[in-house]
């Protein structure tokens, strides 16, 4: 690839060139056969956009409000682990990129920069993602730190009672990265000769007993609104609302947990219909183009979360790479909206897209 990247996919190749194989595989890889990893992207390709013509699109407004926070576009940076494996400035650079583009940043429980470093680095609106550990005091400790450092919401990742089988990490004997948030509180040193040290650490720490009643416990230790991440069907979406969450994130963990789980875009409508507008629905997984964002909004998502492309931009160019990735997606979304006759995100409706099922019925 010669010259500057012209789309976010090209940042992946740049990242591949600069990262050690172990780290690139860690960020890029999925579970087992990686069927869901491919399907997260391919499922978008089977949805087409229905343009509208002769609409005045001289002014396009992509801004939206997510849980009371106005953002420049319906984009949130997905919480993802260990940004310092991609770039020395890690999550601090990612947060600054988010702030510069006026989008929300999700900070991972497994971040390599501390909560305080990220909070003091810029004025980005930040949500904090958590896992629930067997030692609940660890999770409580991190939630309280996030709240005291100005984070605006908690994202509970609920699809990880155990870590998915990530075979690239096993082959590479992926090492556990330094978790500075926990230093002086718990040990993060795990030694295993069976493959991925990260998998061994997860097995030792993650609480497989986590269940719906524990959302009440989480609500009891924080005043922050709680979103739940990992929903893939309408039934779980309704249970989440009953449990009192303020937002639902459709996610298969970047296809890193259960292989052959559905592509997230393929279950979006089911979840939206179950929720019936009671809380916003966000979509995580497979977003690589502004057209993907448009399709997700047309099918009912309030916003999308961007994961791997941000990491690839960070690896290639640090903070400026993060900004480039976000701006590329925003520019593509703006163009898509103009060509589809939509001046605001509220103008994007279900009539603007056709799914594979609908195209099949039209041919009958």
From TrEMBL:
Subcellular compartments: Peroxisome
Residues annotated to bind glyoxylate: 131, 166, 253, 256
Gene Ontology MF terms in the entry: (S)-2-hydroxy-acid oxidase activity; FMN binding
GO biological process terms on file: defense response to bacterium; hydrogen peroxide biosynthetic process
Keywords: Flavoprotein, FMN, Oxidoreductase, Peroxisome
Taxonomy, superkingdom: Eukaryota
GO cellular component, one term: peroxisome
EC number: 1.1.3.15
Protein name: (S)-2-hydroxy-acid oxidase
Organism whose genome encodes this protein: Solanum tuberosum
Gene name for this UniProt entry: LOC102601782
